[in-house]
Write a structure and sequence with these properties.
The chain is built from 15 helices and twelve strands. By secondary structure, the protein is an alpha+beta fold. Strands 5, 6, 9, 10, 11 and 12 form a six-stranded antiparallel sheet that branches. α2 packs antiparallel against α9 and α7 packs across α8. The longest helix is centred in the last third of the chain and has 82 residues. It is elongated.
Length: 597
């Protein structure tokens, strides 16, 4: 009986649990919020704990310092350079024969002794397998032509890289056994390499090319590099050279795929930089995954599947009207992103099962595709983190002030559409103007996309005036003041004004309820429930008293009946005794009269 107060701790716990269940049955919106909150906690736990964060940065820094921090002799012998300062093919060979060989063939030093195994660098990093060199070349005269009137100066040209201009012709020393050039072209499938987006290529570089592997023994590595250098492995046809190897740090169980890139653009010069992909080993090997992480990921998968089934049921019930709600579009964006994330999460396991890990010591095994899947998984999870947390506003709409906020934003977006069209037209016109005026002198405006980003930075406060002044004394000041005045002082202020106007319109149509008022309403509801229980308590006590009085009254009547019956029995006994005495007296009188006669 709910009217009876619990007497023991277990009864009190059951009573409170029953109250909560009844409340959640009445308030389905609160129940949905609690389920979504659990979903959000599990997702955040997986997203944040699967990536060690600081350890990744520290390992990348150690690898970068080991490969780019060491200097090598400049070509003129008058100074030293670092990797980022390379500006010719000769600098590539000097870096490879110097800092690279020193890094990959080093022995680990510990407690005044050297570890005899080579392949350690940055103290704890161990190279797995060999180091691979891959070159991308272009065909002579493909994609470019030398004008006839310049033939006395030039006889050939080498076009910028493109898939059409890529060279597949074998070159190098003649192999005595085959009579063919030694260095032949390999497809991207043979090299198991994907495309790479460089800094100078008009298109991404293909995963194909000419390659050789470098052993980790110092003498053998120096011999191999000297052979390729002396036989002109790199020429004017070279557009990019990639140096790839895999390293592992057992202390923090992190795997790093190192790619050193040397680009040789058709305009001349060189650009050298480092590309690193580091991931926890548990992301690509299922045996390294923890049980808690596995349980959390399975729980997320189950809950996501449940939400998708509920959404499909609503679509079947509501039809096209389902898509009239903007929240449903956000929901399905979230669902599709989760499906992509689950697919990318399993893909590295399959790839590593085919490749095998660790690689054989005498081979280079490319784990680029597995690492790419991990990187893309992190990108999708990052997008999902944004969408999943934004969907919390939908779950919190049972709170009045959240409902007001969502309506304000919805009304504002509707009013901002015309303004955004005007804003995009203005920024696009300035983007084209800046690209044409400064694209050949300022790196920030080298193409339309970078020009657009640069204008956005100026709008947020970045100061580019001096460089624009030096590049063009007329258009520099004109475009700078035109964009800052038109973009910041006019367009941004109009944007703020429209947002404020939309808020005023919504505020007049929707009762304004703040956080404090929502809390007061909630406390008021709790207090009213408590008062109702107190008011119901005397009625319960009266009912209990009535039952007790009736029980006591019934008990007294029974006792009275018993006493009455007892008195009757006593009176009967006394009557029998009286009759017996009277009989004896009569008998005695009869006896006396007989004697007298």
């Amino acid at each position: 009986d709910e009217s009876e107060e619990p007497q023991t701790a277990q009864e009190l716990l059951d009573y409170r649990a029953k109250q909560v269940r009844n409340y959640l049955k009445r308030r389905q919106d609160v129940a949905d919020f609690l389920w979504y909150l659990l979903y959000l906690i599990l997702f955040t736990y997986v997203a944040l704990t699967i990536d060690p964060g600081l350890e990744l940065i520290e390992q990348n820094t150690a690898v970068r310092d080991a490969l780019t921090g060491k200097q090598f002799l400049a070509g003129d012998g008058q100074g030293y350079k670092r990797l980022e300062q390379a500006e010719s093919l000769g600098d590539f060979w000097r870096w490879a024969e110097g800092p690279l060989v020193e890094a990959i063939t080093s022995k680990r030093f510990d407690q005044n002794r050297f570890d005899q195994s080579q392949g350690f660098f940055a103290r704890y990093m161990r190279i797995l397998g060999r180091v691979r060199f891959r070159q991308i070349r272009v065909e002579t005269g493909v994609g470019c032509t030398v004008p006839l009137y310049m033939s006395q100066y030039l006889g050939e040209c080498f076009a910028p890289y493109s898939d059409e201009a890529e060279s597949v012709t074998a070159f190098g020393p003649i192999n005595p056994a085959t009579g063919l050039p030694e260095w032949r072209w390999h497809s991207s499938a043979e090299l198991d390499e994907g495309r790479f987006y460089g800094r100078f290529a008009g298109d991404s570089y293909a995963g194909s090319g000419f390659n050789f592997s470098l052993p980790l023994e110092r003498e053998a590595a120096e011999t191999q590099l000297g052979y390729h250098k002396n036989n002109s492995w790199g020429t004017l046809q070279t557009r990019a050279i990639f140096v790839d190897f895999v390293s592992f740090n057992a202390n923090v169980r992190l795997l790093t795929l190192v790619k050193v890139v040397f680009e040789f653009p058709a305009a001349g010069g060189a650009e050298a930089y480092l590309s690193l992909r580091t991931t926890p080993i548990k992301m690509i090997l299922p045996l390294e995954s923890s049980a808690s992480m596995l349980v959390a990921e399975i729980a997320i998968l189950v809950q996501t599947s449940f939400y998708i089934l509920v959404a499909l049921a609503l679509i079947r019930k509501q039809g096209w009207a389902y898509w009239a709600d903007a929240w449903h579009w956000l929901d399905w964006t979230n669902f599709l992103a989760f499906i992509a994330a689950f697919t990318l999460r399993l893909q590295p396991f399959y790839i590593m099962s085919l490749r095998g890990f660790p690689p054989p010591p005498e081979e280079f095994v490319n784990y680029e595709s597995a690492m790419w899947s991990v990187v893309q998984w992190k990108n999708v999870i990052a997008l999902n983190a944004l969408i999943t947390w934004l969907r919390l506003f939908k779950a919190l709409q049972f709170l009045p002030f959240i409902r007001l906020l969502v309506r304000v934003l919805g009304r504002s977006i509707a009013q901002m559409v015309p303004f955004m069209c005007v804003f995009l037209l203005v920024i696009w016109s300035f983007t084209i103007a800046h690209r044409l005026a400064f694209g050949d002198t300022l790196y920030e405006y080298r193409d339309l996309l970078q020009s657009l980003f640069s204008l956005q930075r100026v709008l947020l406060g970045a100061d580019d005036f001096e460089r624009m002044w030096d590049a063009n004394r007329v258009l520099g000041p004109l475009f700078f003041f035109g964009w800052t005045a038109g973009g910041y002082f006019i367009l941004v202020n109009i944007f703020v004004a429209l947002l404020a106007e939309a808020f005023e319109e919504v505020k007049t149509s929707v009762p304004r309820v703040g956080v404090a008022e929502s809390l007061r309403q909630g406390l008021r509801r709790v207090n009213d429930a408590r008062l109702r229980r107190k008011e119901a308590a005397p009625v319960v006590q009266d009912e209990r008293g009535a039952r007790l009085s009736a029980f006591l009254s019934a008990k007294t009547a029974d006792e009275a009946a018993k006493e009455k019956e007892t008195m009757k029995e006593r009176m009967r006994a006394e009557l029998r005794l009286h009759e017996l005495a009277h009989t004896k007296i009569r008998a005695a009188e009869v006896s006396s009269s007989d004697v007298a006669m």
